[in-house]
Amino acid sequence: MNNELGKHMKRTIKSINPANEAVENEFPDWGMDEITPVIEASDSAFLKWQTLGFAKRASFFFTMAKLLRERKSDYAQLMAKEMGKPVSQGEVEIGKCAWVCEHYAEQTATYLADQAIETENSESFVTFKPLGVIYMIMPWNFPFWQVIRGAAPTIMAGNTIVLKHASNVFGCAVAIEQLFKDAGFPDNIFSTLLTGSRTSADIIAHSKIQAVTLTGSERAGQQVAAEAGRNLKKSVLELGGSDPYIILEDADIDAAVASCGASRMLNGGQVCIAAKRFIVVESVSQEFEDKVIELMKSYQMGDPLDSSTNFGPMAKVKLRDELHEQVQRSMEQGALLKLGGKIPDKPGAWYPSTVLTGVKKGMTAFSEELFGPVATIISAKDEEDAIAIANDTEFGLGGAIFTRDVEKGRRLARDVINTGTCAVNGFVKSDPRLPFGGIKKSGYGREIGEFGLHEFVNIKTIIVT
Fold this sequence. Notes:
This protein is of the alpha/beta class.
């Protein structure tokens, strides 16, 4: 290709339907020439937005919640076509987005109220002020929820946002920007950047960007944290997980199987806080294994646009192939394939529900995150061994314990399991009222809840002598 001609050709990014590999749409891939004016406009919008009271900001989010509920079917179909989520699950996701909008519209004034602190001064208090333009880098697995759960508190606090969404869900990104406009928000409060990852370092370095938040892979987190650190900007990272679900000897096995299966198979297993390692005390391991296999068999791949489907394709063929390679490596290392594990002979990113047993330390399925419909079963000698296995990981996002002794479960969850969230006799779900995030290689900082709201504000001390 002529170099001069290539220089002026616009890059594009394609939206590919993972169910059939058809091209759904094509979008421009912006460079900094297109991005810089958007960042500057976002900063200009911030100067006025920060002066509005909480009640006025809240009014826009109440309108947005109403629009989300009215459009849930359209948005669910868009997600199904871009990343394969069954429409039934997509509609639930949109409903949750409406909830988070209403939660922060109702609670932000309370969460960010000035806090008086008694000192020898005549008055001392802490106040919470917005920072400015926040750069969001979001993943494809929950294309609306991931964005709106971060945008609602951040914008309610008085900041503005520029979003770089995952490139396979640019249609969702454009729809979200339009949603903000339709809800009546002033221009440039929320802006979508149609760009790949090649521009992120320059975006983070831009003088008008005050902080960055990423939900994504460990590798992406390392890169973003390095750029943020280099530019002395705050970052919040929510990365991967290899969540342990511990089934103790006295657990209600049927209830544990139901929770573990639901957590593992939501969104086809493509969830950072999905149950990923089932750690079962050996006295009940055979019963648990038999029942998990039966449950996993019930998940049959289907058209994500069909309302009766509960298990669609994975988001990308490349991701499906990477998952299959992890399964194959685990089997070569000694894991036993009890269900699935074979790529269907048809177009699309399809992968069946799969069960691996006999998984031990040193195997891929023990140490790596399997981001897809694969249940990994690990046998433990006893409770102490199960806890040791659960904590033997570089990740620390979520986890769960199943036991009929609720007080013991509560104690172990609180004091022993090393995760950002731990459930007792249930599975981990994000909730606008509760902080969400991880430790170790699962990231740092918190999203949602009151603690998430405090991530992107200036916690400012005022002293009156």
